[in-house]
Amino acid sequence: MAMKRTKLSLAIAAGAAALTLAPVLQANTVEELSAQLQAMQAQMMAMQAELVELKSGEKKPRYTNVQERDYGELQEQVIGLREDVDYLSEDVDDMDDRLMAPERHAVLDNIRWGGDFRFQAHGVDAQMPDFIDGMQLQGMLVGGLQQAGLLGDQFDFQELKSVVQGLPPALVEGLLGQMAPLAFRNGYDYDDDIVRTSRLRLNMQAKVADDVSFTGRLAMYKVWGDSTGVQVFNGQPTSINWDGTASTYPNSDDLLHVERAYFTWNRIAGSDAFLSIGRRPSTDGVPVNFRHDEPRGGTPMGSLFNYQFDGITLGYNINDFSTLRLCYGVSYESGWGNGSQLRDDMLDDAQFVGLVWDILDTPTWYVHAIVARAMDISDGFPATTILPNDPLTGEPIPAPVPIRYEPTGTIGDIDLAGLVVTYHQGPMDYFVSLGYSETDPTNHTSPFGGMLADPFDKPESQDGSMYYIGARYTFNNQKTKLGLEFNHGSKNWFNFALAEDDYLAPKTAARGDVWEAYMTHRIRNTFILKMAYIDYSYDYSGSGWLLGAPKDLDDTPILGFPTYDEASVWTLGLTARF
Q1: Alpha carbon 30 to chain centroid distance?
Q2: Which among 65, 185, 190, 202 is least buried, having the fewest CB atoms inside 10 angstroms?
Q3: Residue 287, preceding bond cis, omega within 30 degrees?
Q4: CA distances from 575 to 115, 224, 260 (A)
Q5: How far apart are CA 85 and CA 90, in angstroms?
Q6: Distance, CA of 298 to chain centre
């Protein structure tokens, strides 16, 4: 009889386990299996507790027929149930192992990864023209004013500016004329036989919903042998670590930076409108992408805007071949990270708005126009660098240290406009790009100057222009391409091109002439060799700067720092895309 009860109890326990396991096996996910397992374990623990209480006599049975049960049989049921649970747990673990791999794959499929790694070697051969050392001249001027009792030992730029502007112009000009020969410096050559760079870019895309997507890019771009995190200022705008150039111009670190991160909401309310917000795709736009054998990398025209920024784009797809976009961006936030709470004259944020129109986008023709206005531009954006000289006194800094340079005032607004046309026919690609800039300055100047004006002068409105043309031939093997490009910028030309991918200096910002010849060859479809040669011929100083008046480099100009007159750069590189 006891044996029959034992068999019956075991059968009941097995049946209970089977009934409990049935919905578990029908579960679709590991989470559901785990929940069922936890329920069984809770049931088993409750039965064990009841057995202990019944043995001790501290609890009366809940059912009258419990007295007929054998405690040993009950314990056997518990032990059997535990064995069934252990067995089920092993099955769940096995299913977990088998399901985790597909689940991980499914999750990773939500983010599509790609990117490229590029190695390049560059050689530089450049010449600096004869010039008057502006830092030394500033030091002599300050010293002379102090000796005359017109300036105290402790002063700021506004005091210095007031004293200089209060003197007769002829007296100041004569004083500087006497000092200039003492600050004269002969021109010299600057050569760097080889410098090596590595750039890593990781692209990611994800589908958030049927009409919402995310796009991002992380990037590292460094010079071999330099991970110090800051550069020494050499007079070129590319020797400063800007927010808009991280990862798109060689940095002094080996960190991954967020170059792009934005979502796009398409077909809003069933219309052809879209909205995109985040760190914008604003680098490597047409036509600068041709020379890299890459598709269009940025929304705005690359020869007018090549600078990272945070902003918003509201667009409308007019038809399959035309798209209109209204863009807004912020390049300087005046109320964050700069101690603005310590001053009572906080600056306005530097912002810009632009209208970008892909007028025609077909396999043969691409026509793109842009108009933009940058507003409340300050005399510097938050950046880090090492200044070798004090810009106020002109004296060398005994122990140069990294500083975060903060603007002192608003220098004005600037309007920009551009047009680019590309044409593809057979093995040939052609492009023409035109640019125009016009300044609307305030009277504010600093030791570095005002908007296209020197420190002690009154800024005036200036306009500049540039043109940029190129052609590229693709050989029959579809692997090798030869290109030739030329661009010219006028005296007062300015564009936002600091993030342009040129080792020495952004070529489209040049106030002068630039020639480039290049060849790209696809060793494999995604493994590309590039050879290039760029020749710079500068007519005026300050290319890429809004601060300071451009100086004719043939007239022994007064320069705060030496600048290039002629320069040439050769490049050899390999890119692996994945």
Answers
A1: 40
A2: 65
A3: yes
A4: 10, 16, 20
A5: 9
A6: 12
Residues 6+ apart with CB under 8 A from 270: none
How far, in Å, CA of 287 to CA of 516, rounded?
14
Helices then strands, counting H and E runs in the chain, come out as 6, 22
DSSP calls for 460-498 = ---EEEEEEEEEEEE-TTSSEEEEEEEEEE-TT---B-T
Reported as type and span, the H/E element at residue 343 is none
Token pair of 423 as six digits = 């044409």
Lookup result for tokens 């006599």? 57
Are the beta carbons of 220 and 200 closer than 8 angstroms? Answer: yes
pLDDT tens, per residue, the chain with 578 residues:
444 444 434 333 444 443 344 443 344 455 665 666 677 667 667 666 665 565 555 544 444 343 344 444 545 555 555 556 565 566 656 656 655 666 555 555 688 999 999 999 999 999 999 999 999 999 999 999 999 999 999 999 999 999 999 999 999 999 899 999 999 999 999 999 999 999 999 999 999 999 999 999 999 999 999 888 888 999 888 888 888 888 888 876 889 999 999 999 999 999 999 999 999 999 999 999 999 999 999 999 999 999 999 999 999 999 999 999 999 999 888 888 877 787 777 889 999 999 999 999 999 999 999 999 999 999 877 788 898 999 899 999 988 888 887 888 999 999 999 999 999 999 999 999 999 999 999 999 999 999 999 999 999 999 999 999 999 999 999 999 999 999 999 999 999 999 999 999 999 999 999 999 999 999 999 999 999 999 999 999 999 999 999 999 999 999 999 999 999 999 999 999 99
Q: What is the dihedral of CA 329, 335, 337, 338, to 10 degrees?
A: 110
Rounded CA-CA distance 498/496 in Å is: 6
Contact assessment for residue 384 and residue 368, using Cβ atoms and an 8 Å cutoff: no
H/E segment holding residue 122? strand 111-128
**Spatial separation of the C-alpha atoms in residues 257 and 216, rounded to whole Å:** 11
Give the burial class of 469: count Cβ atoms within 10 A of its Cβ; 0-12 exposed, 13-18 middle, 19 or more buried.
middle
CA distance 25 to 91: 10
Nearest to 186 by CA among 133, 233, 126, 135: 133
d(CA 287, CA 291): 8
- Which residues lie closer than 8 Å to 119 by C-beta, 6 or more apart? 196, 197, 198, 573, 574, 575
Q: Residues 6 or more apart from 69 whose CB is under 8 A from it?
A: none
CA distance 85 to 441: 80
Closest CA to 204 of 258, 277, 265, 254: 258
Structure tokens belonging to residue 519: 């060849």
Residue 101 and residue 182 in contact, taking contact as beta carbons nearer than 8 Å: no
pTM of the model: 0.80
